[in-house]
Write a structure and sequence with these properties.
alpha/beta, Rossmann fold, 7 helices, about 20% strand, cell division, cell cycle, metal ion binding, GTP-bd_ribosome_bio_YsxC, metal-binding
């Protein structure tokens, strides 16, 4: 098998029609903002499955969440890194809680605030029994940065299963994207909690959104 074929096989496989439909129907259900959590004692009761999204500041996390839920402003988008400063919980009609983690990396926030976020995130990841999957968003134009590797190390240490989602896939040409995918897949081999199948998405072009919805539906 050629390197290109190996790379292709490690992408999330094509979903069957009924799986795509299940994902579509899931995300047509009402989504409501529950609360923003800045302290451990504010965490809601674990009464349903939780699906979590993490990523560097300005990676396109809010745009991806909005695209998944077919909303324009459910998760706030901004060109200012570090806009999300809490763990934001959204209830998808009782089916599961979608959790939006604070953007990490070059967030424009005081160091003590960033340390506080990191402590809160670590405790959240370590203690949530209902946390089914963390999707780690990586800007396809840049690949892994130091902050991404730090987050992945934290996920490995807390033994939380996670899956990489490449964002802004429309910004790369086909050959560039194949190269980026190969780099990501190779790097994931060093991370025991990482799943080796990844998504390539574009919130602008709606690329990979149906497949990501189908994957989330399968986790429930």
């Amino acid at each position: 098998m050629t390197e290109a074929n190996i790379t292709a096989s490690l992408l999330v496989p094509t979903y069957k029609e009924h799986q795509i439909e299940a994902g579509r129907l899931l995300f047509t259900r009402p989504v409501t903002f529950m609360l923003g959590v800045a302290k451990l004692e504010q965490l809601p009761a674990e009464d349903k499955v939780e699906i979590c999204f993490a990523g560097r500041s300005n990676v396109g996390k809010s745009s991806l969440i909005n695209a998944l839920c077919s909303r324009k402003d459910m998760a706030r988008t901004s060109n200012t890194p570090g806009r999300t400063q809490q763990l934001n919980f959204f209830d998808l009609d009782g089916a599961f809680n979608l959790v939006d983690l604070p953007g990490y990396g070059f967030a424009q926030a005081p160091k003590d605030v960033v340390r506080s976020w990191q402590g809160l995130i670590r405790h959240y990841l370590r203690g949530r029994v209902k946390l089914r999957r963390v999707f780690v968003l990586i800007d396809s134009r840049h690949g892994f940065k130091g902050a991404d590797l730090e987050m992945m190390k934290m996920l490995d240490e807390t033994a939380v299963s996670y899956q990489v989602v490449l964002t802004k896939a429309d910004k790369l040409k086909k050959g560039q994207m194949e190269k980026r995918i190969a780099e990501v897949v190779a790097a994931l081999k060093k991370h025991p909690a990482a799943l080796n199948q990844i998504f390539a998405t574009s919130s602008e072009k709606n690329t990979g959104i149906s497949e990501l919805r189908a994957e989330i539906a399968s986790l429930l």
